[in-house]
Amino acid sequence: VDEGFANARSAIVDANVTTLITSLILFQFGTGPVKGFAVTLSIGIVASFVSALYVTRTLFLIHLSRRNSTDPISI
User: 34 Cβ partners below 8 Å, 6+ apart?
Assistant: First the structure.
């Protein structure tokens, strides 16, 4: 689980940073509605970033700690 999250972290960070850079460019060069979209996009990306890195991992680890290790894995 730790290795999976470590491998996914770089992809999550890359995607979110790229979108934030795009959002900053839209805000810098856009007009009224485009600037509003850029702000909304930035807020969404920050919330998604925090959720993907911290909340999801915490909930998954809680789920694993409550699960009986002898339960069969369903495929």
Answer: 26, 27
Rounded to the nearest 5°, which phi and psi values hold at 68? -75, 125
Nearest-angstrom CA–CA distance, 20 and 46: 8
Other CB atoms closer than 10 Å to residue 38's CB: what's the count? Answer: 20
Residues 25-66 have pLDDT tens digits of: 999 999 999 999 999 999 999 999 999 888 988 888 888 888
Q: How far apart are CA 3 and CA 1, in angstroms?
A: 5
First CA to last CA across the chain, in angstroms?
18
Higher pLDDT, 3 or 49: 49
Residue pair 52/12 in contact by the 8 Å Cβ criterion: yes
Around Cβ 29, how many Cβ atoms within 10 Å? 10
Domain spans in the chain, listed from the N-terminal domain onward: 2-66
